[in-house]
Amino acid sequence: MSAVADLESVTRTAVARFVAALNSGDPDRIADLVTEDFHNEHTSSLGKSLHGRAAYRQRLAGFLEEFQDLRYETEDLLVDGDRAALAYRMTFVWTGASHRPEISVRGMFRFRVEDGKIAHRIDYWDSGTFHQQTTAQRRWPR
Fold it and tell me: Which of 18, 41, 62, 101 can pair with 122 through a Cys bridge, CB separation 3.0 to 4.6 Å?
């Protein structure tokens, strides 16, 4: 195997492990897969970026509580060296409303991997899709 193929294998494995950890709902397992100086960047107006594994771990508990039954389904994964782009469909039950709507949002992660851990994640998703689903379910409950 070439050095590039080895690096891409490490990157692909790191991303797959990270998504599996997100789907596990275990904040410690998720945080263990990022670097100490992890940069979690959000492009959505509803997202909040942060730096550092400790800050990320601290936020995870509340995030996982608010987004119950969180699941990321990989739609596509492209890997180039230590970088990856993953198109996803995220589903969850949002506990931020009394009627607890089931939400489905498509988005994209960009990753940079260092030493088999996620060093930087950029998350792109449309907060308007989230608002449409929470508003629609308030007006027309199932």
Answer: 41
